[in-house]
Amino acid sequence: MAKVLVVDDSNSIRDMVCFTLKSAGYQYVEAKDGREGLTKAQAESFDLVISDVNMPNMDGIDLCTELRKLPNFKFTPVLMLTTESSTDMKMRGKAAGATGWLVKPFNPEKLLATIKRVVR
Amino acid sequence: MSVDLSQFIPSFLEESFEGLELMESSLLSLQAGDNETIHSIFRAAHSIKGGAGTFGFDVVTEFTHLVETLLDEMRDGRREVSPKDVEILLASVDCMRLLIEAARDDENYDKDKVAQTTMLLNEALSSGGEKSAGEKISQQSDNTEQSTGKSDTSTFSIHFVPEHNLAKTGNDPLFLFNALADLGQLTTVANTGELPALTDIDVQELYLSWDLTLITGATKDEVHEIFEWVEDDCLLEIKKIDKEPLVNPSDGEKETVSVNEIRAASNIENESNSQEIYPANDNSVVKKQATKTKAKAKVEVSSIRVGVDKVDNLINLVGELVITQSMLSELGSDFNMDKIERLTSGLEQLLQNTKELQESVMRIRMLPISFAFNRFPRLVHDLAIKTGKEIELVIKGEQTELDKTVMEQIGDPLVHLVRNAVDHGIEPAEIRLANGKSAKGTISLDAYHQGGNIVIEISDDGGGINRQKVFAKAVEKGIIEPNATLADNQIFDLLFEPGFSTADQVTDISGRGVGMDVVKRNIQSLGGRIQVESTPGQGSCFKVNLPLTLAILDGQLVKVGTETYIIPLISIVESLQVDKDLINRVSGDMTLYRLRDENVPILPVYQLFGLATEHTEIDNALLVVVEADGQKVGLMVDHLLAQQQVVIKSLKDNYQQVIGISGATILGDGSVAMILDTPGIIQMALAYAQNKQRDMASYKQFAIGEQC
Question: How many structural domains are present in chain A?
């Protein structure tokens, strides 16, 4: 089953995402900010990265830019978790190489249905 | 599938309150141009908004959105950080707290306050920044999803031409088609027309395009949504084909791809028949798992954050304990007298292990007092504005650790003392200047350990306590006689009398005369005490002395008849053998003992609890002199036994409250011993005594403070 890297500085959101992934049988690895996420990404490959945008140390956009530089992550789907549904936000994500976005608030069903578009 | 989210709510709430605290403290220290701080405030608000939306607290989301918008303008430099905006933001933090608490308890909140703050926020937004304030939050409930067309299926024809580099965004057409296939019956036809010659193929590029036919019950929006992430990187046409061969022009209209408003579903199901709960994922944080309440019942946040080092240390100690245990059990399985030495050393090791383990476990409950101090910068900031005084707050010793329970209960008394310091302590600027002081008053909070206690000091550099005023007021209230002569300490103690207030005017900050007596009672119920120092013209200092923990107490074991009692060591002044010449029998049942220049009533414990004992003779009895509320009594006991630490077990939880007993403990031999409640016993004794004796006794002795 696919392995997902979940990056979010909010414990509750991260717990929620991971729990949802776990209940659907996905494997996951957690990181609490972009920097930690990048370190974990450098250590192993993932089938999907789900990352918050606003985080201390390294934000989601920078994380995405950095991930695309890694050979293993050239084609890996990277989804941004965001509360900002503005086009500007999406364009910035796109420019950094993000695959798509999940607009908060979302519920578990929605999350699972959505990630099926990029990973099975 | 349905996933129950309510289990994550406690963690969300805890996080939100931490976020609010961070916002508050950052706002108080915010300087214009300090981008890092603005960022962290923004992030906190942002996380709260995101979480609140996810967990269905829509009111919180809506309100926080406004806050976030304002912060966003500051973050982008479109708005100057003005004191006025900071005030609005501080008020907003209060509102967010109100809203989150209301959501947690499923109760109503102060709608006026929220409405007023919302108005202020909107005003601020429509003035200052360039961004329009009317931006409506895009979060919408999907409950209103049109059900029309759900029942009957429709056919869509989709023309999909991805750009060659689509794969580099992480998107894969195969997954999109799989997602489409989930919606209904899908037929795909690939067009290979653009495929270059084999030698020219770049394996990382996409050359195919597709014509898809989907028969589904889903709406066009739902079909379109699947292409949400790729629509900028492809040519996409989605057509709805009517069942009739005749093409309806309006329906068959080609859709040009436009930026689609994304709507996220927020319909969190609060299904009570939720599924099995998995343990939440803990990352290096020990959490007391809150008992999950199925309905939206009161969710008390009762977890505690503990540093990893403390946990590691604990695990280490448990490891040692296991080693000692296995050594001892090996020894016991084949024991003879030659091994007695090893047994002794093993037991000694066990003692050491247990003690260290106990200390470490206690340390887990200890939190730095900054948790209690954190709210004061804001409080003083607000009070200073309200009273028009200039006040600086100095906080020291915020890393001093204190038991969590004690911390929770000391918060309110401290707030009261700080309010008093602002309102009564610090003088208005004119008076300060006239007295040669700087216009800005200083209030300091300090905490430090002293022996097994923690001392919290609240001091101000104000005018000090006006002794004449206190005295006059006490006479007026009938607490003392007009001709009484009182030492300073005794005058200060009057402040803690019920119904006492010296404020000329009752303000809404303090001075209603409800408070200081409650403060003192709260502190005493924690086994602590409070004392006052004050120098006219230079300020006052309130010292609160508290035990570090409520779970363990240092006690003196005493024997009365066949019973063993425990007297808290903190309340014992001294223990002595009675000299019969100093016994003074006064009228009534009361016997007084002359202890240097005081008369201390003697209370035979066997009488108090109706026990049978041989030691009924006062003349050469043992007295343990204890003190509470500034009142000393001599407890007459049969024997003094050991001093030891005892673990307090609540009587109230296991049996019921008993006057004169504060709890029970289990001794080394397995028997239960009662812990005497010194203030309770003194009150019992005073109930017997005459009023005159009470007055005499309570004013003819040293104040508590002089003992330590």
Answer: 1
Mean pLDDT of chain B: 77
* Spatial CB neighbours of B418, under 8 Å, sequence gap ≥ 6: B376, B379, B380, B443, B445, B458
Q: Tokens representing B160?
A: 């999909």
Torsion of CA B102, B51, B124, B128, to 10 degrees: 170
β partners of residue B637: B622
Buried-state track B552-564, b at ≥16 Cβ within 10 A, e below 16: bbbbbbbbbbebb
On whether the CB atoms of residues B510 and B424 are closer than 8 A, the answer is: yes
Contacts of B361 (CB under 8 A, 6+ apart): B314
Distance CA(A116)–CA(A108), nearest Å, equals 13
Q: How confident is the model at residue B670 (pLDDT cuts 50, 70, 90)?
A: confident
Which residues, including other chains, have CB under 8 Å from residue B519's CB and lie 6 or more apart?
Answer: B413, B416, B417, B496, B530
Considering only CB atoms, B139 lies closest to which of A76, A105, A118, namely A105
Determine the Cα–Cα distance for residues A1 and A48; give it in Å rounded to an integer.
Answer: 11
Among B541, B547, B549, CA closest to B445? B541
Cβ neighbours of residue B623 under 8 Å, at least 6 residues apart?
B575, B576, B577, B578, B593, B602, B634, B635, B636, B637
Contacts 24+ apart (CB under 8 A), B494-503: B494/B470, B495/B465, B495/B470, B495/B532, B496/B520, B496/B530, B500/B473, B500/B474, B501/B473, B502/B424, B502/B466, B502/B469, B502/B470, B502/B473, B503/B423, B503/B424
Does residue A34 sit within a domain?
yes
CA distance B387 to chain A (A): 38
Give the per-residue pLDDT at B452.
67
3-state SS assignment for residue B375: coil
pLDDT digits (tens, 9 = 90+) for A80-105: 887 766 677 778 888 888 888 887 77
Beta-carbon separation of B175 and A116 below 8 A: yes
pLDDT tens-place string over residues A2-46: 899 999 988 888 888 888 888 888 999 999 999 999 999 999 889
A10 touches chain B (CB under 8 A): yes
With beta carbons under 8 A apart, name residues in chain B contacting A120.
Answer: 175, 178
Q: Are strands B184-191 and B209-216 parallel, antiparallel or unpaired?
A: antiparallel
Burial class of residue B130, CB neighbours in 10 A (0-12, 13-18, 19+): exposed
**Comparing C-alpha atoms, which of B161, B164, B163 is closest to residue B202?**
B164
Q: Is the pLDDT of residue B138 over 50?
A: no
Nearest CA in chain A to B43: A54
A36 and A25 in contact (C-beta within 8 Å)? no
The answer to whether residue B8 neighbours chain A at the CB level (below 8 Å) is yes
A120 part of a folded domain: no
**Which amino acid is present at B321?**
L
For residue B672, what are its two tokens? 């239960």
- A54 closest CA partner among B71, B55, B14, B77: B71
Return the minimum-mean-pLDDT range out of B8-17, B84-93, B510-519. B510-519
Find the range with the poorest average confidence among B137-141, B401-405, B470-474: B137-141
Distances A90 to A53, A110, B163 between C-alpha atoms, Å: 11, 19, 18
Residues of A in contact with B283 (CB under 8 A): 11, 30, 32
Secondary structure percentages of chain A, helix, strand, coil, to 5: 45, 20, 35
With beta carbons under 8 A apart, name residues in chain A contacting B141: none
Least confident of B22-31, B228-237, B258-267: B258-267
Distance, C-alpha B621 to centroid of its chain:
48
Structural domain including A20 reads: 3-115
In a domain, A17, yes or no: yes
CATH of the domain at A58: 3.40.50.2300
For chain A positions 33-52, those within 8 Å of chain B (CB to CB) are none
Instruction: Indicate whether A52 belongs to any domain.
Output: yes
